[in-house]
Structures are given as structure tokens and as C-alpha cells.
Hints:
The complex is a heterotrimer. By secondary structure, chain A is of the alpha+beta class. Helices cover 23% and strands 13% of the residues of chain A. Chain A has one domain (6-315): Alpha-Beta Plaits. Chain A has eleven helices and twelve strands. Chain A has a four-stranded mixed β-sheet with strand order 8-1-10-9. A two-stranded antiparallel ribbon of chain A has the order 2-3. In chain A, strands 4-5 form a two-stranded antiparallel ribbon. The relative contact order of chain B is 0.16. Chain B is built from 35 helices and 32 strands. Among the domains of chain B are: 238-311 and 418-487, Dimethylsulfoxide Reductase, domain 2; 314-414 and 783-811, no CATH class; 832-963, Beta Barrel (Barwin-like endoglucanases). In chain B, strand 14 (393-397) and strand 15 form a beta hairpin. By secondary structure, chain C is of the alpha+beta class. Chain C folds into two domains: 22-152 and 189-285, Immunoglobulin-like; 292-392, Cytochrome Bc1 Complex, Chain D, domain 2 (Orthogonal Bundle), CATH 1.10.760.10. Helices cover 18% and strands 23% of the residues of chain C. Chain C is built from eight helices and 15 strands. In chain C, the strands form two sheets. In chain C, strands 1-3-2-12-11-13 form a six-stranded mixed barrel. In chain C, helix 5 (292-301) crosses helix 8 (380-392).
Amino acid sequence: xxxxxxxxxxDLNKCIGCQTCTVACKTQWTNRNGREYMYWNNVETxxxxxxxxxxxxxxxxxxxxxxxxxxxxxxxxxxYGVPWDYNYDALQGGASFEPNVEPTWGPNWDEDEGAGVxxxxxxxxxxxxxxxxxxxxxxxxxxxxxxxxxxxxxxVVLVDLDRCQGYRYCIAGxxxxxxxxxxxxxxxxxxxxxxxxxxxxxxxxxxxQCVGRIRFVGFLDDEEGQVHKLxxxxxxxxxxRTDYGTQPNVYYVPPTESPxxxxxxxxIIEGSTRLxxxxxxKLFGPEVHGAIATLKAEMKKRKETGESELxxxxxxxxxxxMFRLDNNYYQxxxxxxxxxxxxxxxxxxxxxxxxxxGHAMKFFHGGDVKAGGxx
Amino acid sequence: MTKVMNNKRRNFLxxxxxxxxxxxxxxxxxxxxxxxxxxNGKNDYxxxxxxxxxxxxxxxxxxxxxEEHGFAYHCVNCQGNCAWEVWSHNGVITRENQSARxxxxxxxIPDFNPRGCNKGxxxxxxxxxxxRILYPMIRTGxxxxxKWKRASWDEAAEKICQNIFDxxxxxxxxxxxxxxxxxxxxxTEGRRGSVLRFSTQLGANRIYPSSYLGDMFSGAAIxxxxxNLGCTxxxxxxxxxxxxxxxxxxxxRIPDAHFVWEGKYNGAxxxxxxxxxxxxxxxxxxxxxxxxxxxxxxxxxxxNVILNEKMYKPEFAKLYTDLPxxxxxxxxxxxxxxxxxxxxxxxxHHKWDxxxxxxxxxxxxxxxxxxxxxxxxxxxxLPKEVKPTLEGSWTIxxxxxxxxxxxxxxxxxxxxxxxxxxxxxxxxxxxxxxTVKQLAKDIAxxxxxxxxxxxxxxxxxxxxxxIWNVASICGLTGRMGPYGGLNTENEFQLSGLGAxxxxxxxxxxxxxxxxxxxxxxxxxxxxxxxxxxxxDVKRAQNGMSKKEYMAVLKEMLDAGxxxxxxxxxxxxxxxxxxxxxxxxxxxxDSTFRRNKGNEYRKAFLGRMDFxxxxxxxxxxxxxxxDVLLPAKSHYEVYDLRTxxxxxxxxxxxxxxxxxxxxxxAMDEWSMFTLLAKKLEEIANRPKNVAKAKVKDDxxxxxxxxxxxxxxxxxxxxxxxxxxxxxxxxLGTDKMAVQAALExxxxxxxWTMEKMYKVxxxxxxxxxxxxxxxxxxxxxxxxxxxxxxxFKPLHTMSGRQTFYVDHEMYIRMxxxxxxxxxxxxxQRKEYPYxxxxxxxxxxxxxxxxxxxxxxxxxxxxxxxQLNRVVAAAKGIKDGDTIRIFNNLGEFFxxxxxxSSAPADGLVMEHGWEPYMYKFNKGHNExxxxxxxxxxxxxxxxxxxxxxxxxxxxxxxxxxxxxxKAKV
Amino acid sequence: MKKxxxxxxxxxxxxxxxxADSAIDARKxxxxxxxxxxxxxxxxGAKFSTxxxxxxxxxxxxxxxxxxxxxxxxxxxxxxTAVYNGSKIxxxxxxxxxxxNVQQGNKTDSYADGFAVQFASNYANPAELPYIxxxxxxxxxxxxxxxxxxxxxxxxxxxxxxxxxxxxQTELFGKDLKAFxxxxxxxxxxxxxxxxxxxxxxxxxxxxDGSSNSQSTMTYGKNAWAGTLSRSxxxxxxxxxxxxxxxxxxxxxxxxxxxxxxxxxTAWTAVVFQKGDNALVSALHGKIEGDATKGKxxxxxxxxxxxxxxxxxxxxxxxxxxxxNIGGYATVDYLRESLVKPSAVVVPxxxxxxxxxYAWYNIENGKRVSTMPDHSWMExxxxxxxxxxxxxxxxxxx
Lengths: 375, 966, 398
């Protein structure tokens, strides 16, 4: 176990499927050098085939006894989708705009399609996914070289690119298929939870740039943090497919909000919801019932009394409050290991268990205003 | 060979002296590598630095130097307008990150951070895409053939300006044959001003974008005398009910959507009314799957319920609406002061024409209502003894001694609404009567209800009626200011920016109607005639035959030709004016992409003798230009942009330090200053100088002419007159920004430096408010002044309008709110409606060719088809389908979906024709038409202008589809 | 399947093991061995020895498709010859392979054909050679690897990001862009040749500092590969100046998704420089004592199959390494040592997290201690019998 674990919570009720996260990640890390096809962050429409195609059926993870399960390495053309390109420079020559390969699959192929019968009971929701930075990572466990590691300071799972030999068992071993083979460098790569941003006081690109404001980032042991409260106090944030046995550290507030169904005559079925509970249970396990009950109860309380700490957290009045990156802690780690850590490039997100000083913002109108503290 | 890949690499080995000596003796300068043993990667991994430093280096590279960062926004008619911090490395832009520094307005209301969506977040990728226009280019082959020669800026400017000069000075042509127009690829306070200024200075023709895009809120204009109203989006957090009527904020209002979902957590009920199941509907409390285009009828049904169940607010109606105004039952005309009093004074007579009565319950006599357009008293406040009556009918005697049976607008509305009981509208709207009743309650009963109408509603033939009806629901239920109301698109007021685009009245813009202009430009009548039959027209225009419609329309169009009757009217505009230019200089407008029908491009190019185009990328329009000029894109310029009113911030564009130019791209101010210089040079050539004072109507040129010999001086404010008046100097994008900051009241007291320092934006001051105070700690919503200060609206009645007694409205049975079916053909061979809503993946055609974004779609135009229907046709997901009707056809990839209705096809719009098979865009099957209710003009506040133009429709095509054989 | 099973049974019941491959004679030459390929004249008249490469089945990896493809692997015979001069030694190995597989730069699931040659750093005691799979703790091995990878870029270790950016993400167009792409192209390695030191598979560490020097080639033709390796007789890792040295060869078949342990492997094989009595040669190629039939009975009686899959017909076990091909690539000494001193070499290459309930070893006082019981109490004859039996455990030759 790493000393501490940095975690993310994603609120699926607030996810609008815009993929700003996906693109923010892409421009930060994966628009280059063999990573073009990779989506360290992707958002899929659920129910759907997902990315890579049918990832939930591709094996990996652990069985109940704790044994790593065999898996399949997805194929670029069939399962991820070739990152097709276009004849941009031919447009000036009057040409039509055409992809260089026929697109047959991609990371968002079944966007908004959903399931069910329109309009009676069709439904969908968005499922954003990054590497889960698991406590018991399938990728790490599958690597015969032990070239995947968890950072001691924050539990971020990284591939040691010095030692990785490109065997790809990690890909088979990850039940989320969130580790990728980079064919250009012949090594595996994956989401790094933007640790270089975090170390310099910027939250992960997918989270900080999430315009739907669905992502919280902080240490699980930071009791004042939203992540801790959502995961441990209210237990409304649950890991995805924890039955895979990897102990994921990305948590989801399950979707509870969906419009009522209609009967065959187009009449509203009062009190119904389009989200089949079996599907949610499949994704989030039996804990989902408790989480939904808590969320519904707190929403009701909020509606009736105007109060609810849980709603306050999920609403997230101030964007910068969604992140507690504990910069003093990182500075301390760097100091202890003799590394040179640069000063934060941003002071708004640095609070945490070891960083008590709140993020004083040089406020707009002039004077210094202490941000936050309005809950 | 084993290569030495990296000599900086961490060394596992503690080299002993002996080993070192051994190594040295063998000629190797390197230490021996030893095996690194790892027991378990979960703990104390010994080799973290290599990987960590690699990624840290990448981050440093993309982040660059903080002090070299720029700021920008992407103003391409999304209007969202978000502050971005632009990162760079060595003058090359690497990526962008939302600035996310907007201040908290109220600690109990979510802030606006991080503002910016999936499209903004990839502009750094698009700006270097290889479809950039790099240099001025002059066409050498046929139009569209793709043969060009690279030209110098001087050469290109010479060519363009000579054409402009020739057009203006040709006795048979003149300024009105020239179009200088900036499309919505450039909607800013800074750069756009250059094109507008150039256009105005020349007397060139330009058209209203919101009209030709179908984004004009004509229905709101009727109701409120203002099309753009509503709230800053943080208001959504505070409501009890939010209705998204035709709106899909999770897709097309991405930076603001969080307020809706946070509002839901805060207790709001979210209702979505859309034909398709979309990203907003998926999380709503109530989704109403309406049949496409029947929204105005559903709204009437809601009005019916509100009236029948007495859920309206009579006291509000009496004070703030024209519902108590008296109407002649027989003529359907409102009773005006001239009906009951006589004056010889022509001016007074005109004023009295805009004065109206209610029936005063206190004394049973008509009472002349204050606050109307013609009334001297500019308040809605009524004396205590005046109690307007909403219901009843009376007989009054007019000035001629005629008995007139009168009633109230409210009674007229009740009569009209009676036809739309929920049971009666069920089949047309597809909405169950119980749902209508529920909707009525959810809108009428809670304290705060905001109804957001989506831009899609204006895309239907009868969209104007939809928005008017929805506005009327708000009016009946007393929704204004703190109680919510209609939310089209709030717009803050900016004053003083005329200093950039205008000439203190010396020259005035020659505005043509947007929807009519494009209809005429593209031979719309031909398309209309080809597509719609008598039955369609009758259904949509209150029983008027197609023949009659075409005759009426022709008369209206003739009246607007070359400015038409407006030029002689003494009472303001009375028609929709239009011109047919033969020379065009167009900026950032993919005109062949957006216009409807299969005729437009041919007609446009056939008429245009010369067509120059400015953009940073090869749009469909660029491919057909005679001269191409390379513009800079959003990260390469100085600029300013205020959101119309989704928020209260104005964003700054300031390039990154030492930015490397892309090709020879130029910002629009520098470019148009260069063109101005060239035009002045041409005008001063000995052979030209005599004709260089170009005559024009005094409406457009106060001196009666445009003086091209001092064109550059006037353009840059270096002419004697401007210098005398101390006008700001202009000439570059940066100068324009500085001038705007200096001149615009609402920007005070900000400077560029201060904007840069806080994160690339400023907060506009309280003077930006239009109809409500802009409180420092509260979201904004329109019309609070109306409610609390009794300030009249900009309508003829000074109140919310439920009644328009324009002849055409009476003729169409639409003097008050009513429901009318659309013009879309209802033939069984074309059973599907083609819906092309605003896109998640582009802003119209902007960003449509983004590699990054296309990879997150299907790479080619894809059409959402109802799974069951498509399967029955033997179509599989991924198949190519042919979509067709009697106008034309186009091809797309089939996307089988549970979210598409059985009778509809759903595809995001904005695809350039060149992205489709055979260069046939989806507008090939989209007809064009003009609704006589939007054509009507010259009534009260409904006079042609930025408020009252009309809409080009997009959803009136009925199609069929099949598996393609290509 | 039926035929295979009966073959295996037949093999297992043999009283004596099939004779191991013979040693390889190295021929001294005067020619330079600096640049060697399979067409070099230095190979003229070479005498080839046959070596057998057995499918490595010690550990089952977690790649479902690859496992299916390799389930019925048979042994492969390769032809090897070696030459040396005053400073260098070179090998030529030819092995059959029906398909040429080059790992592509744009595929996620394409794999390379390849080969490797392994040397032991210390081979003074033939009974304690490094574990065949990349050595073992305290017994270092050196490996030269050559794979068919179309081209690859090392990830940036030098802070050089500028050449790794997406070329479409630069301000360059036209000719400038072409020049940039060309420049970046020169940074790619076209020759996937690497050297490693290891003390157990997972400790395998690439030698990137130039302290080992080698040159190898791979050429495909006529359904077979020919691989050459030339290296110094002595570097900081090995000193091959001896009468005989142990080497081992491995080949990978990309068609069967071969990589890392999914390979074919020889046992340690002696390369003989000077003929004569040699302890190494007899340790690796000598006669095997013991009675395999009795050994099998003894193995069963002692419950070996409780933890090890011995024959393909036995149930696979997660507890101990699979021994189905152990006879092919393990030496007699190694097998004996494993029985009597199970912790002397704890088979590396096992990720402790994969099967946390089946720990092959525990860490005691910083040392890996095998969970296999010590069998030093057994009679020598019994041990010989079991070893003889184990030596019969190997796939038949294709």
C-alpha cells in the first residue's frame, strides 16, 4: 500500500457527456507520439459498447479468490478505432474532405444511443472513465517484469518506461482496459492522474477542466475533503465494477436522475425512473442501493429545508473547492527524497491535510478575499 | 548495435573504484549496469524517476512559461464566451486551459468556473491544422476548381479594391451592389468592428446574421419588444422549475449546463420538451417527447389549461400586459385614441394611433392606458381608481357615432385558446393531456419558473408563434424579474462601441433583411415553388392558397427591393429591404454550408461578379472565392468579447508572447486598414480621382457621398474631421481593444493589463443592465424594472403583447396567440422530419473539420435513426444511407439509436458540403420559405431592424431514407 | 489430442531420458567479427549443431488469446554454429518459422519474431548456473535480444519533447513540416536490439550505458529465420575466455503473440572452444542417472502434483511452476538443486500480486524462501529417479 491514496469522485448526475475532459486530456498528453489512439480519459454512453469495444467482456481483474483473470488485448482497428486523419491540405485544391481510413469504430461511437423503447423507457447516461489507480491494480499484477508501480506518496499507478518491455500483459490484466500499448515506443502507457500537474498545484486536466463540474480530487485520508466525505462519510460514491477485485480509487456518484417512463398511451408512469436498477447494480454493486437512498433522502431534505451538506458538496459552489491537492505534502515528499519540486503554478487548489492554509485568492476587485468556507 | 539511448539515465549502481578501473581498462567510460530487482510494484518502487521526469518534462513543455501565456476565447457564434489561458512553448501554442478565475458572485450560488467546452479546449489543435489559409491567394482556374496562385498582400489588395472601386463608381451599380459582410465566424467587439466599419464607410450592403441563421427571437420581439431577454445562467440555480423548451443546454450551452443540474440538487424541477431524447432530457424530472414542430400548439394547450383552471395571475395581466386592452369584435382591431377622439394635428394623430383603452371597472368607461408608445406618460402605474377589466364585452360609440362591440384582448385570447384543449391537441403534439396539465401546473404554480426556449424553435416555419405563445404563458403566470419568465438569450448593453464600427452618424450601415436577403440571393422562390404544394401552404398560412401566398409574397418582396418602401416611409420601416449585390467581400461565413435548398450556391455565384473571402481555414465558401485572404485565428490576435448575457464577463484575447505567425495571416483590423489604404491609393490615381466621391442616399452617407480619396484616413480616424473631434485612432487589433476599453461605458474602469492580471477578463459594470438592475451579488433576469418600477417595455402597448392587429395577423387568424401546424409536407412518401439541431461537436461549421473532435464522433456525417424503424428497413448501424425528398438527396452514416423518434431523423448540423459524399450537404433536402407573419412589417414595434427581421427555417423538410447503393 | 496424449504417456514411461542435444563446437577464425550477418563468409563451411527449443510453460500468462494459440506448442529444432577470434565470438542460429512477423508501429496487438542468446556471468561451477530464465539471485545472466520491430522511439529521457510533439501541432506547413518529420524520423531506431543483465527474469535490466557491446541481425527466408550475434569475448558482464561456456537460446514467434515468457527456449548448452574432458560439457550433456519410471511413481507419491502441473494431462496449478517442459530447458543439476535446496533458486518472473493466495515464496529476513518443502531427506537414488523423470517432461519436437 502506498502511504496515501489520491482519489477522484465523478458525479454521474452532473455529467453532460460533453467530453471536454477527453479533449483536455488529449491535448495535455495523448495527441502525440504513438498515443494518438489512446483515450486516457474517455466518456462513453451507457448502455453501450464502450471503449474499447466491449471492454467489460475482455477479462482481466481478479476472481473472488484473488486470482488474476486472463484477458484479451484489444485490436486497434476493431476495438479502439483507428485515429483516422483527413486530407486537410487538399481542400485548397477543391477536394472533398475525406478520412484516410474508413471509420468503423471510435471512442464515442455509440454516443447518446442508449437502450429501451422510444419514448416509453429508453434511457442512457454518461460514464466517464480514467485509470482507476487501483489499490490492487490488475495491470501491475499482470506485469511479469514488475515494471508497473504505485507511487508511494499518492498511489498513482505508473508504468516504469525505463523497464517496460512492451509485453502487454498489463492490458489483458486491467479489467477496465485503461492501460494502452504505445506501438511507436513499444511500451505501455496509461493515465498518470496528471501527477506533474498535481505536483505543481494544478488538478488533473480532466478534472480541473470538467465544465460540468462533476469531478472532485483529493486524498482519501483527508477528512475535511469532499472526496473523503462522499466516499467514506456519506458513502454515495462507489467504485466501478468493484467485483473485478482491483479496488479502484475513482469513485462514482451513481446516476439517480432520469425522467419518468410513459405507458403505451403516452401517459406518465408516476414515480417511475428510466434507469434500471439492475444495470446500476451491475456497474456499482449492491452498495448502489444505499447510495441512491442517501442521495434521494438528501435531495428531499434539501428541497424541503434548504439544508444538506451532501448537496452542498455535490453542488460545489466554488470550483476551486473541488480540489485539495495538499501541496505542502508534495513539497515535503520532494524534500525528503532530495528531489527538486517546483513551486505551484497555481495556488487555488493546494489545500489539504498537510496544507492548512486555504487558497487565498487575489480577488478581482482588489482586496484579498479568503475563498471557500461557505458551507 | 545496442545504442546509447540516454546517458543521463539514473544509475542503479554504486560504482566501486575497482569496477570503475575495470570498466576503464576495457575502454568503456560507462558504469556497469546491474540488475534491478523489484519485489512488488505496490510498495517502495525503486525506479520512479525515469518515468516521472519524462512526464514532468512533457508537462513543462506544454505549460511553457506562465508569464508567456496568452488569453483568448472562441467567438464563433456560440455566444458562450469563455476565458481561456493559452499555453505556449517558444511562441508555438501547445494547448489551452480554462482560466477558471471568474470571481464568486454569491457564495451560495455556484460560480462560473471553469468556463469552456469541448470545442474551445481544442482550438490549439485546429489552429495549426493544415486546412489553414496561409497566404493571399488569387483564383486561376474556374470557381471551386481549386487552382490558385499565391499573391502578395499588395497584389491581393489591389485586386479586391479595384473591384470595389469599379463597383462603387460604375453608374449602373454603386454601393448597394456591394456586399461587405462579417459572418458569425467572427463575433467580437474588437475584430468584427473592422469589417463593419469598412462596410458602413462604403455604404455596402450587409444582412442580419441572427435572421439568416434562424436565430432571431421574433416571437419574443412581439411579446416584449425585445428578442433577447432572460437570465444570466446562474439564475437557473435559483429556480423552482426550469423548462427547456426545445433547448438542450447539456449539448449546446455546455459551460452553463452545470447550473441546471446544480439547481436540480438545490430542489428545482427540470422539464425538457424535445422530440428527441437528448443529453439534457436524460437527467430531467420530466421529458416531454413532442412531435417536431408542434410546440406552438402544445403551448396553446398549456394556455388553455392555465385559463380554464384559472392558474393565471389577473392582477399581473391587468398591469403588465395588453390583455385588458379593448378590441373591436368585428374588425378585430384594437380601439385606438383616434377611434374615440378627433385631432387635426397630424403628429398627434400619429401618436394617438399608439394609444389604447381598457374598460375601467370602477366607472364602466374606457380608460386611456398610460405607458403606451404614443402616450406621453411613460409609466404603467395606474391611478387607484382605475381597475382594468379582463373579461366582458361592451358596446361603445366611436367618434363617427358608430356603435362598436368591443371586448378585451383577454377574451380574444380565451376564444383562441379554447380550440386547444389538451384532449384536442393530443394527436398533433403527441403529448398526453395529463402531461399538458402537469406542465401547466409546473409552470404556473411555483414561485420561480424560467422557460428557456431553444434556438431550434425558430427553425420551424411557425417558430415565431411558438416563442410568442411561450412568452404568453409567462405573461399569464406573471413571470418577470425575480419570478422567472422567458429566457431566449439575455443580452447586456454595451455602449460606445460605435466608435469602432461607426462614424458618429456620418455613415450608416445599409442593412438588408437576413432571411429575405438569403432567400433572394439563393432563388428561394424557385425552391419553394418546387417543394411545397397548395395543401402545405394552406395548412401553414390559415387556409391561404399557394397561388395567393405567392402573389402576396411577391408584392411584399417587390416592396422591399433595393430598400424599397422604407426609403420613402415617414413612419419608419414598413418592409423587409433587400439588395442583390454583384461584388462581395465576405469574412468568416460559410454561406454555401448554411443556406437552404439546392439552388443557393449556383444562384449566388451566378450573380456575383467578384467574390473575395477572408477566413483562417478553407471553408466551403473559401473554395469558391476569387480571392482568399488569410485571417488569424482566436489565439493570434488581440480582441474583446462580451457574452450576449449568459454571464457578466468580457473576455480578453491577447496572444502568447513572441507568437510565431502562421503563414502570412493577418488580423482583420490590420487587413482592412491595408485594404483601406489600397482603396484610397486607387481613388487618388489621376484617372480615378474625379469619380472618387461616390454618391449615396443620405440615409447611408450624411454628406450624400462616400469620399474614397480619404478612405484610409477616415477608416483610421486620421482625417481632419475625426482628428478634430478627438476620435480614437484605429488600425490594428490591439488599437481596437484599447479603444473599446476606453470608449465603452460598461467596461470602465478596466485596462488590458488589469484584465491580463486577473485571468483574461473583466466584469462589466452595472450600466450593462437593460431591464433589471445588475446586482453585484445576484444573478440577472430580465424585466424587473418593468415589474417594480412600472417602466414600459419597448412594445407598442408598453406592455407584454398578446395582440397584434396588423392586417396580416388578422388575416392569418393570428392577431392573438394561436396554434398553427407547420408547412412541412405531410405526405406518406416522406414520413420523416429531418432535425438538424445545434451541435455538440461544432459551432455551426466552426470546428467541424477538427480532427480531434471528428475522432470523437463517427468521422463522417452520421444520422441518428430510430433503431426499430431502421432495422425494419434492413439498415444496420454503420451503413451508408441515402436521405431524400423531391428536392434532392444526401448521404450519411446510419447511427441506430434508442434516442431518436420513430418519425424523425436527427443529425447535428454544421457539416460543410465537402464533408459529404458527392459534395451534397444536408441542405439539399431542406426547402426554404417565408412566413407571412414574419414578413409583415410596419406595425408598432414590429418594424424591420435588429429586433424585427425574421428567420430562415431549417426543419421544414420531410424526407425518406433507404440503404444507399453507393 | 488423443495422439498427443499417448505420445506423452509414452515419453513419460521411458526408462531413460532422451539424450540431450550435443554441445556446440566453436570454430576459431582469423576474420574480423565486427560486422556479421548470416551471409558473412565467416560461416562458409560451418558445421551446425542441432539445439531443441522447448515451449516455455513454467508460468501461464494472462493473455487469453495467446494462451490458446500456444496451448499445443511443440518443441522446435534449430541449427546453431559458432565462431570466434581473439576478441569476439559470433553465433548463427537458424530456426523454422512459417510466418515472418514484424511488430508494427500502428498496431496494438502485433508481435515480433525474435531471438535471444543468453550467457552466464559465472559458470565456474556447472552445478550452479543461473536459472535458465534470465538468471537468478546471485547468478547473473546476460542476454542479447534481437526482435523484428518495424521502428521504435525510446520515450523521452533527455527532456527532449520538441521532437515528440504531434507534427500537426506545430506552426509548420508544407516543406517545413516535411523537414520536421524527416528530422524526427532519424530519431527512430530501426533495429530493436537490446542487451540485458538479470538476476531473475523480473530483474532484467536493459544495458543502456554502452557497457556491453554487441551486434546482431535477423534475416528471413525459406520459412526460417537466420539470426546472428557477435559480441566481445569479454566485457564487464561476462568473460567467455574458457574451454567451454554455457549459452542458451530462445526464439519468439510473433504469429503466436510470442513475447517474454511466451517463447521457445533451449537448456543451457555448452559451446566448446577446446575439446577434452570438461565438467561443463558433462554437466550439460552427460548421461542422466536414475530411472524415470520410478521417478514418476516417487513424484506422485510425494505429492508433487499437488502444487505442480507435471504433465499436460495434470490439472494446472497456481501454486508452483508448471513443469510440463522442464525437462527441455532445465539442467539435471538445477532439478536436483530445486529438490534439495528449493530456496537456492526461487523461480523469478512471478508477480506476487497475481495470485496472492498462492505465494511461491515468502520473504524471510530479506531472502526469498520457497514455499516448496525441502526434499533433501530423500535418498539420492530417489532424487536421481525424480530428476530423470523430470528430464522426460517436455513437448515432442514439431
